[in-house]
Structures are given as C-alpha cells and as structure tokens.
Amino acid sequence: MRNAFRRIFIAAILLAILACTSMADTQLTINDVRQQAIESNRAYLSAKEDVSIAQSEITRAWADALPDISFDANYNRHFTVPSIFFVADGETVELQTGFKNSFGAQISARQSLWHGGKVLTALQIARLYKSYSLAVASQMEAEVLYNAERLFYSAILARAQLDLWQQALESNTANLEVVEKLFAQGMVSEYEVLRAKVEKQNIIPRLLGAESELRMSHKRLKSFLGIELDEAVVLVEDQTDTSIDELPSPSELTASAYANRPEIEQAEDLAHIAQKAVRIARADYWPSFDAVGAYTWQSASDDFTLSNNESSSWTAGLVVSFPIFTGGRTRGQVAWRKAQNNQAQLNLQQVRDDIALQVEEAYDLLIQASEALIIQETTIAAAEEGLRIANLRYESGVGTQLEVLSAQTALTQAREIQAQALFTFRLARSGLKKATSIALDMDTKR
Q: In the 8-state DSSP scheme, what is residue 109?
C-alpha cells in the first residue's frame, strides 16, 4: 500500500513538472509571428529611421527659406598701444592712436529673396523624399510579414512531414509484426520478413531528416523574430480556409496593386524628384537676390568702461549675384538632371509592368495550389482505403506483401504531397497579399 502511494505521489510530481514545462514554452500563432516580426526585425526598424532622416531634410530645407541671424562679439587687449609721431612747434610729439581695451558686437541678418526657385523646390523635394521613405518602410514591412509567414509555414510543413514519416514508420512496424506472425505460422517465407524489415529501416533516415529539418526550421524562425535559439516554442497552426470563391478577379487584384503597392509610390516620388532636380539645375542660369542687414556697436577705453568712446551703426543692403560664365557647368548639370528624369520615368513604367506580372504569377500559383489540395483530399482517402484493403487481403492470405508495401508507399506519398500543397497554398496566399497590398478575405480562421 505504501509503495502504491509512493508511485502515485511520484507520478503526480512528474505530471506537475511536465505541466509547468509546457506552460513555460512560448506559443506562437501566425498573428503573433507577424506582430513580433514587425517589432523586432532590424531591417524594418532601420527603414523607419530613414523616415526620421527625411523629416530632418525637410527642416534643413525650411532653414534655407528662413533668415540667417547671427551675433558676434569681440574684445581686444592692447598691451602696447600704437603711437604716431609728428612735429609741432619744432618739437616731436608722440600721440597714442588707441586705447588699452576695445570692445565690439554685431548682429547680422541675411534673407534669401530669390534664387531662381531653388529654395521652394528644395523644400518640395524634401517632402517628396519623406513620402518616398514612408513608402520604403511600407515595402519593408510587407517583406518582413511575407518572410515571417514563410518561415512560420515552413516550420508547420516540417512538423507535418515529421508526422507523416512517423505514421509511415508505425504502419511499417505493424506490417512487420503481421509478417513475423505469419512467418512463425509457416505461411510466408523468410524473404518476406527481410523485405518488411528493409522497408521499415528505409524510413528511419527519412524520419531523422524530418526531425532535423523541424529543429532547424524552428531556429530559423526564432532567429528572424529575435527569439533566443534555445528557447522552446510551440507553433499553433491555424485552420486555413482554402476556398477561393471570394477571391477577386485578376483585373481587380492588379488595380488594387497599382493603387496600394509602395513600390509604385516610390517610383512616382523619384520621378517627381527628378523633375524638380531639373528645375534646380536650371536655376543656376538666373541671378540670385539676398537682403542683408547688420547692427554694429563698438567701444574703447583704458579702464574697461563700455560707455566711453562708443559708437554704433545700422546697415542694410541688397546682394545680387549673376553667373556670367561657368565654363558650361550649368549646361552639363541640366543635361545630367534631364537624363536622370528620363530614367525615372522609364523606371516608373517598368515598376508598373513588374507589379502586374507579380500579381498574375501569384494568382496563378494560388489557383494551382487550391486545385492540388482538392485533388489530394480524394487521393488520400483512396490511398487509405487501398492500404486497408491490402492489409486485409494479406492477412487473409489472398494478397501479397508487395501490395501492402505499395499501398503504404502510395499513402505516404499522398500525405507528403498534401502537406506540400497546403504549404504552397499558404505561401501563394501570402505572396498574393504581398503583391496586391491587400488583406484577402480567405485569410485564416481562428
């Protein structure tokens, strides 16, 4: 009685330890993976910093439109005061020309009036650059989400492949037991026993490979998410809705991509920047006008008195600068900016064509994956029924072991193809979301 109680007590402790270990494991759903990827991915965080840099460029552009005001002050100590000499009434007279201490201060201002439109155009370019940086961050976010989903579903695929090879091993183990039983009864030859053992052993390397791939797929996902590689995680698989009845038409998807893809916004911003860069280059043909003004105060004394011998002045003026000859530098600059503008326009057209092609490829891949899943559902059902019949025939003595082994292989292949087809469907769906920048209706069911 005491030993029985001790066994129950030890079992309860072990169950509690296992429960605590299970609770300590980090559970990750596809939504958790998306969120954590956005929060921790370094490339995306770096792209967001580019937006701050672009905002600082706007501030700098504004600075060129505002006046520059500066204050300067100075103090000089003359240890030897300069003198001049002259003759008066037949005598040489020495006269000091300054004081031991001199003080000065000045406030000056310069305001650009017109520089051929450079200032306002530069401000417009800075704002376009910020828009471009935001689009780059959006593109990076889409890339990060796509890669996060790809790594998550790759780990799910690795787990499914491990499961199917474990099922194959169990099926071959059960078949070996049946063959050994029939051999003991003298109903089959030793060759059939050896054949069953070989088939079972052939599965073990595939099983070990699947275990390794599952372990490495988890590590790749954790590395991408910034999780410690030795931290235990449990992936919670979503129930994917493989229906495509609500899928928009290719033309609607393409139109959505044109309206929402950040790559198009980037190309448009670069095209506008290139156009305005031509305007800035042409501004060097024109004169520039600046208003200037200053207030100057100065004082001198021998005893640090600021109120003696002081003077002040106000000045204001207009500065005009006109380029007469630059050796063709301005003409070359304009030609260079025009060529860049043409490149930007061609790039915009190419980006639109590339996006249309990406949408079409992602759409076709999703359709193919959906059809493959439908086919595999019936294929697996047929393969399972075929294995059941083959086992019954063999145990009844009317079938052969070759039928059983062939049926087992066919079922394993069907399960493997189904797992791959489901992964392909999920990846194609993620690719179509990335290509169109929209959340599809047949996303996931929780």
A: E
CATH fold of 25-66+115-287+326-436 reads Outer membrane efflux proteins (OEP) (1.20.1600)
The answer to whether the CB of 125 falls within 8 A of the CB of 281 is no
Q: What type of residue sits at position 420?
A: Q
pLDDT in tens, 109-165: 999 998 888 889 999 999 999 999 999 999 999 999 999 999 999 999 999 999 999
Half-sphere exposure of residue 194, counting CA atoms within 13 Å on the CB side? 3
- The dihedral region occupied by 107, where left means phi > 0, alpha psi between -120 and 50, and beta the remainder, is beta
* CA atoms of 430 and 369, how far apart (whole Å): 13
Angstrom CA distances, 309 to 75, 83, 315, stand at 15, 18, 20
**pTM of structure:** 0.76
Which residue's structure tokens are 């919670």? 236
Contact status, residue 314 vs residue 295, Cβ threshold 8 Å: yes
User: Could you give the 3-state DSSP secondary structure of residue 227?
Assistant: coil
Neighbours of 134 (CB within 10 A): 19
Q: Which residue has the tokens 């920048």?
A: 437
Mapping DSSP to helix (H, G, I), strand (E, B) and coil, where does residue 318 land?
strand
Per-domain residue ranges for the chain?
25-66+115-287+326-436, 73-113+292-321
Summarised one tens digit per residue, pLDDT across range 227-250 is 889 899 899 988 777 778 788 889
Strands 83-88 and 91-96 turn out to be: antiparallel
Bridge-based pairing state of the strands 101-114 and 233-235? unpaired
Single-letter code of the amino acid located at 149: E
Tokens of 315: 């000045």
Please tell me whether residue 166 adopts helix, strand or coil conformation. Answer: helix
